[in-house]
Predict the 3D structure of the following.
Amino acid sequence: MEIQKVAELLNAKIVCGSNFLNSTIEHVFASDLMSDVLTLDTHNLLLVTGLCNLQTIRTAEMADISNILFVRGKKVTPEMKKIAEENQMVLLECPYSMFKAIGMLYVKGMQPVY
């Protein structure tokens, strides 16, 4: 599914990375534990998390994850946005709970990592 379609489906705000909205996502992984994120070896991944801080951006950078959806109405800080832009990441903000967002993506055919 294209990132633009994910944003539309989840009523998500595109914080940065709007030039990558045609990129395709194949898998979704939801976690607030960045140690779990570091174990992933999957490409074209959307990370769904409620942990909205610099650690999330740095962890995604280390794990080669370019697409992050922040749930539960969490807001990206200017510093997070700056680092994400430097790393050509897409950041989305979603008003839904993690459970609802993941469920909506699953119903539309998105695949889990495990």
Residues 73 and 95 are 4 Å apart (CA to CA). DSSP finds five helices and six strands in the chain. Helices lie at 3-9, 34-37, 54-62, 78-86, 98-107.
